[in-house]
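// run 5 | inverse folding | seed 20
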């Protein structure tokens, strides 16, 4: 087995579990395609019909990216959080603060890529609240802090998981909740589906981190994975098929793919959807284990999926900058072809990997050394700039209300 280390903040080395590597690698591929879709590189024809309908393609993208993709990322966060068994709660808290800082910095960089000229300055300044959009990193930061605090209380993994489902239930009671205060709405978006900045509110998505944290404790004890999956995988597959049918047919209590005025109701799962998505991830993991067995027989010298997983955080950050730059500056023409969209995603991934390698070779050590000298100062500076962006945005018309 090979070893790796945390990318955002240095942490204890841990053994690789190939099925987890492959989960993250395929999620990266699906994520880039989903982000291309969301960045309006793809235009949905509302009148299209038939098996090749863009509407069906949109539903497929949504199912893969939300039900399985994002959920799998969160699950892997929890699963890999303490593989070595030596991570202390305070390390989770510190890492969470570091990830939150990187998240703010990434959001700011993304938004700057959309700037087109002084003629749109008022509109641009009004949109600076985008720095506070709770995407994966702005979710992951508080999630690690919360996990560290719960571990500090010496709570068992199963207690944390049950508590996370309770949090999900509480969050489900407040979907669409808003106040008249844009600052309060922006803060609440970290926890519930409030205002336009929520994507992965903590109350709804922490359950996936908690599930990964719980599953790891049992999974690493399984000596005969083949025997385990021979029994477990068929069960997981049947449950997953049933759940996906319910979700796509919008049969209550599923709501993850429901059509609604909030547009992002799929991001605020209820406990039933959460459990269903967790089963999907377990099925995904089982098939990735099978895939890993096939790949291992090839005795490859280079493992592309392991590479994607090993460089996950760097690739994630770079792809967003590329996509926002292409979208903001109109560098890629809009298409209605799923094939063209796929080629866009492959091209962006190729550029992403190239920039990742250049960063690792020429900038990574210098960057860590530069920011590592005064980490508290840099964290404070990024938070101060983020708060200033929110204040400016409110001054130029941001109301904190979902539109």
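// decoded
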């Amino acid at each position: 087995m090979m070893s790796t280390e945390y990318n955002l903040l240095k942490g204890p080395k841990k053994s690789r579990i190939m099925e987890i590597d492959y989960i993250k690698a395929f999620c990266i591929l699906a994520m880039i395609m989903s982000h291309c879709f969301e960045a309006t590189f793809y235009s949905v024809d509302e009148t299209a019909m038939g098996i090749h309908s863009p509407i069906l393609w949109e539903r497929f993208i949504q199912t893969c990216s939300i039900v399985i993709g994002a959920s799998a990322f969160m699950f892997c966060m929890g699963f890999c959080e303490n593989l070595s068994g030596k991570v202390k709660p305070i390390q989770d808290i510190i890492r969470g603060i570091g990830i939150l800082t990187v998240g703010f910095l990434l959001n700011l960089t993304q938004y700057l890529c959309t700037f087109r000229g002084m003629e749109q300055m008022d509109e641009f300044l009004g949109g600076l609240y985008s720095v506070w959009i709770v995407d994966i990193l702005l979710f992951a930061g508080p999630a690690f802090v919360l996990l560290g605090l719960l571990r500090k209380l010496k709570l068992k993994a199963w207690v944390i998981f049950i508590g996370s489902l309770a949090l999900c239930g509480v969050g489900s009671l407040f979907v669409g909740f808003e106040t008249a205060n844009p600052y309060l709405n922006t803060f609440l978006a970290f926890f519930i589906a409030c205002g336009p900045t929520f994507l992965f509110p903590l109350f709804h998505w922490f359950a996936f981190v908690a599930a990964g944290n719980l599953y790891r404790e049992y999974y690493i004890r399984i000596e005969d994975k083949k025997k385990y999956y021979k029994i477990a995988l068929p069960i997981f597959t049947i449950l997953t098929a049933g759940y996906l049918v319910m979700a796509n047919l919008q049969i209550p209590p599923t709501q993850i793919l429901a059509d609604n005025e909030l547009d992002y109701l799929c991001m605020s799962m209820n406990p039933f959807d959460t459990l269903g998505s967790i089963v999907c991830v377990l099925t995904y993991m089982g098939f990735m284990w099978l895939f890993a067995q096939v790949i291992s027989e090839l005795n490859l010298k280079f493992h592309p999926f392991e590479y994607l997983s090993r460089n996950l955080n760097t690739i994630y950050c770079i792809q967003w900058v590329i996509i926002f730059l292409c979208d903001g500056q109109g560098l890629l023409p809009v298409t209605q072809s799923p094939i063209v969209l796929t080629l866009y995603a492959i091209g962006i991934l190729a550029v992403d990997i190239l920039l990742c390698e250049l960063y690792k070779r020429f900038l990574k050590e210098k960057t860590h050394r530069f920011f590592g000298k005064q980490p508290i100062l840099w964290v404070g500076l990024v938070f101060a700039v983020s708060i200033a962006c929110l204040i400016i945005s409110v001054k130029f018309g941001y109301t904190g209300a979902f539109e």
